[in-house]
Design a protein that fits this description.
Two copies of one chain form a homodimer.
Chain A: H1 5-11, E1 24-29, H2 39-45, E2 55-60, E3 70-75, H3 83-97, E4 103-106, H4 111-115, E5 118-122, E6 131-133, H5 156-169, E7 171-178, H6 180-195, E8 201-206, H7 224-245, E9 249-254, H8 261-270, E10 274-275, H9 278-283, H10 288-304, E11 310-315, H11 318-321, H12 323-338, H13 342-347, H14 351-359, H15 362-370, H16 385-402, E12 412-417, H17 428-446, E13 452-457, E14 467-472, E15 477-482, E16 485-490, H18 500-514, H19 530-533, H20 538-546
Parallel strand pairs in A: 3-4, 3-7, 5-6, 7-8, 8-13, 9-11, 9-12, 10-11
Antiparallel strand pairs in A: 1-2, 2-14, 4-5, 13-14, 15-16
Helix pairs in contact in A: 3-17, 7-8, 8-18, 10-16, 12-14
Chain lengths: ~550, ~550
């Protein structure tokens, strides 16, 4: 396949590893652990994987050795920059301990394990039909090496199909690279394989650009760094354009359905006039008109200074975090399930929902009622929140103008960024971090661990100070209601309003709203000075500094 | 103002200059020139600026000297990466010849000259209200240093207002940085100032990301390189996502109303499945359904191989290049001017236009009839061509499925990139090229030239082989009909179907359509190996190689 000049140059990059992996290594075990909540329930569900110690790798005289077996790897869920480096770190880690150990990649996500679709990942391809050259994928973005998928590993029938193929291929360990749900399922699988005494270990790796897989153990999920830097690059470019043309308000929606970490991080990197944080909207029970009015007020205040331009960041999931919109959507789902006539359904809305519905621009109201999924539900992800807000701010400003409270011109442009960042080539941070996660996973396997997540800590320091660790996945679990039933899950990390990143936004946003404080981060650099190329995200730096 | 790490590091970059400007320099004059067409008319309109020779600067013993006067600079039209470097090159060029020479920037585009709005550009700010620090803007994107505007310099009353302020500020030369129209107007201004014996010289600089300001003299306009690289970065990222998720067709619209150079260049950099070129559509008189069907055929062919994903590039101006759409829009403009009822107007469309209108998805048909500008005209720029094509391809595929000609899933996602690239920090190429254009403009001024465009040639070679030149703007002119009257203008360079860049697309597109040949260029690099950082555009490389 044809390659860009950057791909060719970047292939030669040797990702950095924690010091522990530079020579020999020894495993150090900590104390027994407990889950973050619901200890009794979790312990009962995970008798074999509960309570295990946190482990760390330390420098020692000799390398670990690995039994003569093979390893399988699975990519699960949405793409995140660095997935290929987890796999190349895993590959190199295995080979460093066992030259004969093979790495198999299951194709298209967890379904590859169930359906027995796989390829060997190697650096010596002799048959392109069954083998993939790992060297083609080092330091590249994307999950195209083996593909990903959203099949959930939840049923014992699936687990048993996994045993079949592992036995056939001599696989004694699986590495599952995924988000919170995939890591929860990795632990369920580990538990099952231990109960069944299959001898198959399972290790998880923390992936997601959304940044919502983090806790006292996980400092950051991989991909968040790169994705936020790509979004901040284009946001910064749009800001410079806004500040040059001085005639548009850009409303930029950013990927991230359930958490606003991406929007918040991009705001800290670029200093927009406004950044909406869904978690704040929900917690303060803000209404749609409160949000619209606060934007309109900023537009008017800037217009009063002659600045008819600005930038607003909007998290993708906002709509569902606005309590009254959430109620409206639920009512519509219920009504439209039994009533095909939209007008009749709307007539039956509660008084408050009806008034919210009637405040919506026509095109958005249509999206709410006409575009339903096969189950008859409103397709919230199709709602163009950025256009909704532009229309409503326009209407609000017209009213303010009539009242003499606004003098200016308002012209809004909408953008949505998501797919631009999920498969970018990993930043130095993600390249090193992911490679280390994979290399570390190989060492956890060699140490006989299962039900562990591969973790790297101390990530705001230079990589030789990074700590390679393994944390029992059960330690991060609690019980939550999912589809009506209580399930053990890793708690999703939403933006905390008393956390350092949000406080940083809160401290500055009044000034950013009125003045033009834009910062232009520019594109990710791979070769330049360290202070440019190796910066962690503001979120990570602030959170670690606050510890 | 707060700065990103990259901005701080990049500020120290010293842009490269042609060898001629490293030491002393001498002006070499060529033969008398003629305009590219309509010689008699152009000569009559430009008695003082017609027929002047092309000039080049060559290495010599001594530097040029500059009289003790000041210079003014104007940014005109849409933003393009590198504008700040033209100004910093101009500033350094002036100072290298006359330490006392001041540079004034007129604010907000040509209107700043007319309305006498200006700031001094200096490296020693003593009064922030009247002075701008040039060092804050070196190697940065945007036009925010002095702002830009779209006021056209066409009337003698405007020119006279310019004389007033130039006399007041001791300005003996103006540099106008703009596209084809702005450079035409720069020449009209130069001619007027010569006729009036004002002693004010006027020099133009070739700017536009659209790439349509080029000819036998101009190799490329500045900003095209950087903008196309930014768009190619995000297109490549989306491609890698498409190839990883394997479930979406991405329809990506790219800025460029009148020419498809941007879409074509991005296609050559990234190898999408399909790239539509407006000029081909117009020349081959393609219909909307031909375009839709050809996309649907590629979708079906890829689906037959199990690939339900792909990428389509669409030039922003496409709609107006489809002959039947152009006719429809004209008919609607005429009908809606006298008929406010949309249905009644549609009923009066010609048979062919009516059938085209009826083939459009409802939302697009609405945009065509409801969203009109203050003159009652259809707002073509608001038409979401990417969504139009997705909807129509979906409809076509449903028909093909019914006929048994298509088996697969089609899910389309639309994107529009434009504002992301216009103000990006200039690539090394644009940083060097723009700085050289500005430095060269100072030397043209010192040589007493007026009605010239500052040009750098031999741009695919390393910068020490670049040739610094001045070309009479009249040489690039012909007469064209504008708003009903014949006007002298610089001919706009559209994509030529027998040009090397288009031929390269043509040679490869059958393969790119069916197979996945994506290339992932990644972000612009400023510090890495030269083969990564200093690549010219494919368009420029192919065109120069073909010469």
């Amino acid at each position: 396949m044809a390659k860009s000049a950057l791909q060719i140059a970047r292939a030669a990059y040797q990702p950095k590893l924690p010091k522990a992996f530079k020579g020999g290594v020894a495993l150090k075990e900590g104390k027994a652990t407990e889950s973050v909540a619901n200890q009794a329930e979790i312990k009962e569900l995970f008798p074999n994987t509960y309570g295990m110690p946190v482990v760390t790798f330390e420098e020692a005289a000799a390398k670990l050795s690995m039994g003569d077996f093979n390893v399988g790897v699975i990519l699960s869920g949405g793409q995140a920059p660095g997935g290929h480096n987890v796999i190349s770190g895993l590959f190199d880690g295995i080979k460093s301990m066992n030259k004969n150990g093979k790495l198999y990649g299951f194709l298209g996500g967890p379904s590859g394990l169930i359906d027995h679709q796989y390829m060997e990942i190697t650096d010596k391809v002799t048959d392109a039909k069954t083998q993939i050259d790992i060297n083609e994928y080092r330091n590249t973005g994307g999950f195209d090496i083996i593909g990903s998928g959203r099949t959930k590993l939840e049923e014992t029938a699936q687990f048993d199909k996994g045993i079949e193929i592992c036995n056939k291929l001599g696989i004694k360990a699986l590495v599952i690279i995924g988000g919170d749900d995939s890591n929860t399922n990795a632990c369920v699988l580990a538990e099952y394989y231990l109960q069944k005494k299959t001898g198959i270990q399972v290790i998880g790796c923390p992936k997601t650009i959304d940044g919502d897989l983090k806790n006292s153990q996980i400092e950051t999920s991989f991909g968040f760094d790169t994705a936020c830097k790509v979004y901040s690059e284009v946001i910064g470019n749009i800001m410079r354009d806004a500040n040059s043309a001085k005639k548009y308000w850009h409303f930029i929606k950013l990927m991230g359905r359930s958490a606003s970490h991406i929007a918040l991080e991009c705001a800290l990197q670029t200093q927009p006039n406004i950044c909406i944080v869904s978690e704040e909207v929900e917690q303060k029970k803000m209404t749609l008109s409160q949000i619209v009015n606060s934007i309109a007020d900023a537009v008017a205040a800037r217009a009063a200074q002659g600045n008819n331009f600005g930038v607003v960041l909007i998290p993708e999931g906002l709509i569902e975090f606005i309590p009254e919109m959430n109620v409206l959507i639920k009512e519509l789902n219920d009504l439209l399930a039994v009533e095909s006539d939209v007008k009749a359904a709307v007539a039956k809305l509660s008084a408050n929902s009806k008034s919210v519905y009637e405040s919506l621009p026509e095109a958005i109201a249509k999206q709410l009622t006409l575009e339903r999924d096969p189950h008859g539900n409103v397709q919230v992800s199709l709602i163009e929140t950025e256009k909704l807000l532009i229309e409503m701010v326009k209407t609000r400003l017209a009213a303010m103008k009539a009242e003499g409270k606004y003098v200016g011109k308002f012209s809004g442009l909408g953008h949505f960024f998501g797919y631009e960042g999920r498969c970018a080539a990993p930043s130095n941070f993600d390249a090193d971090y992911c490679y280390s996660l994979g290399y570390n996973a190989a060492n956890l396997i060699a140490s006989g661990k299962s039900g562990y997540m591969s973790l790297i800590k101390n990530t705001t320091k230079s990589s030789d100070q990074w700590i390679a660790a393994g944390v029992p996945i059960t330690m991060m679990m609690n019980m939550e209601k999912r589809h009506g039933a209580m399930k053990p899950v890793i708690r999703k990390a939403l933006v905390e309003l008393d956390g350092a990143p949000f406080k940083e936004l809160e401290k500055n946003r009044a000034e950013w709203a009125i003045n033009t404080c834009f910062v232009y981060p520019g594109p990710i650099q791979y070769f330049g000075p360290s202070e440019v190329c190796d910066l962690p995200t503001k979120t990570l730096a602030l959170e670690q500094a606050a510890k």
